[in-house]
Amino acid sequence: MTDAPQTFAGLPRRAEDPLRASGDIGLYVTRELLESVPEERRPEYAQAVEEFAARKYQLGVEVARQLPGLMSGADPEAAARYLDAVRAVAEADWRAAVQAAKYLHHLQSAADDAVAEGYRRIIIEAVTLQPEGGAADAAAEELIALDRDLKGVEARFARADALRVELNRRRGRSDRRQDQAVRLAAALPDALAGVAPSHRPALAAQVRAVAQADAEAALGATGTLRELLGHRLSAAGAAEWVARGLEVLERNVEVGRGYFRLATKQSLQALDELRDGVPLRQVARVLKLYATALSGRDVAIRTREEMESVTPYGAEYIVLPPEMRFFDDDESNFIAYKVATAHGAGRIEFGTYDFRLESIPDVVAGLRRRYARDEEWPP
What we know:
The chain is mainly alpha-helical. The chain folds into 3 domains: 121 residues, no CATH class; 132 residues, no CATH class; 81 residues, no CATH class. The chain is built from 16 helices and 6 strands. The strands form 3 sheets. Strands 1-2 form a two-stranded antiparallel sheet. Helix 4 packs parallel to helix 6. The chain is elongated and about 105 Å long. The termini are far apart. The N terminus is likely disordered.
């Protein structure tokens, strides 16, 4: 009796099957996954899955799930680009690579190489900040030398203890940074999808700038910029807002992280100063001339704040908001001002505010007869 044929993920394998060289990866690859890969690319598929599984089981599983669609697609280079990007992130941190492996092919297939490359670099830089890594290596080398040479000298023992404390502190910071990088890898694709395509490069660039300083702050900036870009901040405004936040972060890490979550007074104040909009004071003279030409009389332009104590309606003035921020661009906001001014000028021109009940005594008398009870109407 001959031995039963060897199998790969439940499929029979011939002795000459090139997949034999890849070892047993049935733990990561199901029968359905393997069958979805073109036959000629199965050896390449098995080799790639085994490579990433050797780094970490979870990473091998995620790569095994994503590769079939890339290998059976129209772009023959899609799988190679995807594997190169995942490999680069895995060199920095396998946990961040697991998250990145879920999204990288979507970003790459969007035909926007700059965004996909920016995403990859943000994750890598968030995990491997410098120069702290080099400083930690130097401290570790010094500790080894001291442990070897200690001869009971009290000063050396003290230095060794101090270095142990410092290294433990840095390891703790590194673990926290890696956790934040994993969360950033999961949050960034949704943030990029949540803004207009024209704003995605700006969001990626600003998040990367923050990630180079602090991964946790970058996570906060991701959510905040997703809500602000294109609505309350232009790309230039976002860059200035982030620059101010990095200055705060440099002085105080916790306060800086709160700034990027939009949780500090300074952050809100900076946003108010930088948000897009057209101030009324810049266009009031033009609007006054426009209203005067439309209505045929000298008309003043006033802000709502100026008219708080009196009626906002009158034949001598038009009341407008102090700033117009309804649209994303200044031209549209100025047009909105013009529309509001034309509306007010039309009321003035056709006598809306000149109307008095005394001018229609017959109508008032008829209404009084029809609706009045014991009391006089109108008063």
